[in-house]
Amino acid sequence: MRPVAPACILLAPAFASAASFQDALRPMGPQAEHIHDLWLLMLWTCTLVFIAVMIAYGLALWRAPRSSEHTPPLVHPPEDAERRHVIVVSSAAGLSAIALIALVVASVMTDRALANLPLKNGITIHVTAHQWWWEAVYDDPDPSRMFNTANELHVPVGRPVAVRLRSSDVIHSFWVPNLHGKRDLIPGRELMIQFRADRPGVYRGQCAEFCGYQHAKMAFLVIADDPEAYEVWAEAQRQSAHEPQDATQKRGQQVFLASPCIMCHTIQGTTAQGKQAPDLTHLASRQTIAAGTLANTRGNLAGWVLDPNGVKPGVNMPPVLLAPDDLQALIAYLEMLK
Amino acid sequence: MKRYVRLVLAFAAIIVLLAACEREARRFQEPATAASVPERSQSAELSAGGNGTTVPIGNAYEENAYAISQGKRLFVWYNCVGCHSHGGGGMGPALMDDKWLYGPEPVNIYRTIVDGRPNGMPSFAGKIPEGQVWQLVAYVRSMSGLVRSDAAPGRNDDLAGTKAENRREPAQPKGGGSPPPER
Question: In chain A, how many domains are there?
Fold first, then answer.
């Protein structure tokens, strides 16, 4: 972060608790760095302007003519004083114009730099936003190697990522502050955002365009892995779901296939092929459920299945009221879907 | 006296306004059962010919714009469109005409969805939660103009070959229509 580190120290207390989890001030890739640099330039320019204005204001107060009721009015100010005022005011206006033009130029150059990220040797992910979750399809020239996941993107460190954005209902916005700025997802259009993660880590993303009741609970994670780890993960995602092993898991699979879950969810390798809700083939490999709302634990899963509207009021998932034994079996099965 | 009348009028206006809100109301927690539904169909109903139950059971969702539009989404999501198209029919009978093989009452449609019907219509018992079935029922009836036009869905965002549901003329329901052929 080079010569501008003081700004971070200045602002650190406000952001310290978030670490690098979701933080535009800790760029983890070239795109976020461009934006961060521009932000710092604007911050320091505006700080200098603010200080200069305050000094001028203080001087003006200090130098104000203090007249009494007996002072005769100054009808004809001296010629040289008038000229000095003109010079001071016009040079201040000129400086302001130069500063503003410099900021415009910096902004345009940042935009160009953002658009120029080379995409060679990159990966492409198709992301579709739904109320209120993210569907992701990892593209591959060989269709049999494409795979679906949801609410959690893994990307390889050091390789560019092109995310093609679509929406199935209303306008959403894709925002991972550590990696890039925002890009809207607009129904009926496809937009693209490209970024690269240069350091491994878990970066939280968030829908940044109000999209309905659960806009705030429409988050996702971008997990930057080492390229080898990424390949291992991708290969695992391409596989069908694991077969249930013990009796409880087998019963859980039966419960899943006989309940309303099957109408919307997919588990590859079974007859569940619904396309209206997150793909559950590798649910247990994800860190969160319900689009970054809850940690992926046994208790949270059970609570989510029984009462999704208690967690995210307005969500499209209906409550699935299962008998306790069936629920336990179902959760055992879902927890096995690594 | 005049003041009293004005007070009553204001009160009545508030009641009317609150009642109008119902049309848009969106409940996050659905009541467990929308209506009490008679037990499984009798065998007579399973044959075509319009001798279905005509017990009128109200469907509260028919008054509610959100529920009907949700029914419209579910109609696509649950692949009703696969056979019925968007109401015009295909492998399955048309739903936007005035002919009702098994009766036009909400409960007839409910039974059709939950129990299935011969020659193709599968049973969705245990697959579609009851509240959603009633939303679908409300939407199916809106297709032929049988629900309030101010609660029926408006036009689609994309091009559609037919009038929006809220502009369809209510047609007097008739029995009959042709069931899908046996295979």
Answer: 2
Please identify, among A176, A207, A237, the residue that sits at the C-terminal boundary of a domain. Answer: A237
The answer to whether the beta carbons of residues B154 and B168 sit under 8 Å apart is no
The alpha-carbon gap from A263 to the nearest alpha carbon of chain B, in Å, equals: 7
DSSP A266: B
Question: Which of A168, A189, A263, A321 best tests the B interface by mutation, with the highest count of B CBs <10 A?
Answer: A263
Question: Quick one: DSSP state of residue B141?
Answer: H
Radius of gyration of chain B (CA): 18
* DSSP-assigned states of every residue in B24-43: G---SS--S-SS---SS--G
Taking the C-alpha atoms of residue B89 and residue A311, their distance in angstroms, rounded to an integer, is 38
pTM of the model: 0.82
Other Cβ atoms closer than 10 A to A230: 19
Q: Which domain CATH number covers B73?
A: 1.10.760.10
**Per-residue pLDDT reduced to its tens digit, A129-143:** 999 999 999 999 999
Q: Is B52 exposed, middle or buried (0-12, 13-18, 19+ CB in 10 A)?
A: buried
Give the closest-approach CA distance of B72 to chain A in angstroms: 13
Cβ contact B145:B96 at 8 Å: no
Per-residue pLDDT tens for A235-252?
999 999 999 999 999 999
Helices A324-335 and A247-258, axial angle in degrees (round to 10)? 100
Interface check B126 vs A, CB under 8 A: yes
Distances (CA, A) of A70 to A64, A66, A73, A243, B44: 17, 11, 9, 100, 112
Distance between CA atoms of B108 and B105, rounded to whole angstroms?
5
Distance from A276 to chain B by nearest Cα, in Å? 6
Q: Which residues of chain A neighbour B127 with C-beta distances below 8 Å?
A: 259-260, 262-263
Binary contact (A276, B77; C-beta < 8 A): yes
Does residue A133 fall inside a structural domain? Answer: yes
DSSP string, A91-139: HHHHHHHHHHHHHHHHHHHHHHHHHT---TT-EEEEEEEETTEEEEEE-
Give residue for tokens 């910096």.
A106
Domain that holds residue A274: 247-335
pLDDT in tens, A201-216: 999 999 999 999 999 9
